[in-house]
Task: inverse folding
């Protein structure tokens, strides 16, 4: 509740300063971003059952937004133990839900912490067709460790990095910083995290975004996704002198409505506008080069659902020490409302929580003859938020108003 109140306070302060605050919520699912993701999981006896369970929860949360499949992300787990063991091959689980269930079902093996052996085994499996790994896709290794290893890790880790594997290390113990920073990909501030096992959620989004950067570095992908637009980004393939790009796009359920745009070869991004909300689009980037052939790149992007903020905020029944605030419309997609109010000028703010089925609330115990900023925030089932503000003035505290003698219906 405290964290939610602090977030709401930040939103209120931005609104009071006249800043635009976009809706916050979960990131859209990431699709058609190819990469093989390998978790190196410390399954040895040096890790307690509790720590092992918390690490599994962290992995479960980390993979949630990714789309899995032969043209998307594939994932596998290798146990660090006396003998390294692959929990499942890369191509076994083709959906986020099935992978998350497999992570839940993973059991600790105990044994010695032979990380060096596990790294050598990982190098073999990351490039093995028998293990479901794919050639010519980005390779990412995430090693979650308590900082202890029974054997040397420097040589097998360097071999992995020399083969193009990006190595992220999450240390939940008191590992040697110099050793781990040398083992992680460079720079260490981006690829090495020290965090208590109970605080792994702190780094989840940052690590997920870093993994996504690696996977999407050489792929067409979409960013800045809204209900009516998204921006396409791709690696530099052409120049203004060597050609141009054709961008083709259409709704997945109506490919006959395909449209095309031409983009200068000097550009590496392009924004598509005027799109339908909550709609999946098939997008193709076709490099038209006068020197080399570049194969088309494709991706699938789903626009966000259109969610409406409160269109109107009404202030009524104003008296010396309170007023009534109401809003419209009320929507089934809203879970709850937050009403923030505070005097102007000033940075004091109060918070009221209101159920999504209601369209108003009383605001009481206010100072007389004072102007207040009132912000109503709709919190949607999707996690997004939309806000609208209004000013309200309490009246002078005189008996003539009779406010304090009235009972609110």
Result:
């Amino acid at each position: 509740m405290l964290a939610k109140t602090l977030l709401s306070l930040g939103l209120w302060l931005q609104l009071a300063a006249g800043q635009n605050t976009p809706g916050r919520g979960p990131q859209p699912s990431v699709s058609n971003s190819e990469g093989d993701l390998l978790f190196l999981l410390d399954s040895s006896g040096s890790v307690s059952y509790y720590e092992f369970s918390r690490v599994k929860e962290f992995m479960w949360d980390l993979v949630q937004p990714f789309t899995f499949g032969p043209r998307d992300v594939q994932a596998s787990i290798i146990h660090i133990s006396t003998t390294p063991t692959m929990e499942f091959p890369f191509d076994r689980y083709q959906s986020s839900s099935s992978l998350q269930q497999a992570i839940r079902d993973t059991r600790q093996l105990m044994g010695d912490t032979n990380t060096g052996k596990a790294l050598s085994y990982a190098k073999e499996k990351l490039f093995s067709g028998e293990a479901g790994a794919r050639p010519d896709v980005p390779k990412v290794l995430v090693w979650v460790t308590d900082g202890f290893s029974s054997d040397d890790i420097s040589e097998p880790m360097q071999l992995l990095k020399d083969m193009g594997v990006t190595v992220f290390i999450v240390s939940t113990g008191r590992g040697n910083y110099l050793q781990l920073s040398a083992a992680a990909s460079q720079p260490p501030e981006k690829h090495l995290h020290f965090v208590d096992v109970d605080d792994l959620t702190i780094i989840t989004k940052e690590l997920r975004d870093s993994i996504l950067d690696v996977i999407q570095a050489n792929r067409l992908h979409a960013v800045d996704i809204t209900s009516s637009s998204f921006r396409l980004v791709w690696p530099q393939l052409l120049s203004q002198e060597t050609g141009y790009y054709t961008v083709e796009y259409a709704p997945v359920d109506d490919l006959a409505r395909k449209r095309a745009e031409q983009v200068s070869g000097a550009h590496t991004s392009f924004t598509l506008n005027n799109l339908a909300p909550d709609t999946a689009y098939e997008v193709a980037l076709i490099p038209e080069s006068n020197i080399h052939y570049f194969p088309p790149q494709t991706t699938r992007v789903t626009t966000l659902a259109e969610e409406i903020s409160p269109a109107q905020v009404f202030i009524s029944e104003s008296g010396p020490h309170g007023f009534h605030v109401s809003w419209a419309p009320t929507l089934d997609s809203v879970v709850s409302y937050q009403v923030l109010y505070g005097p102007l000028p000033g940075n004091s703010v109060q918070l009221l929580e209101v159920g999504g089925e209601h369209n108003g609330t009383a605001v009481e115990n206010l100072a007389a003859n004072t102007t207040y900023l009132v912000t109503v925030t709709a919190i949607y089932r999707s996690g997004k938020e939309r806000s609208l503000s209004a000013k309200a003035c309490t009246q002078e505290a005189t008996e003539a108003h009779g406010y304090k003698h009235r009972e609110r219906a």
In short: The two ends are 30 Å apart (CA to CA). The first helix runs from residue 2 to 16.
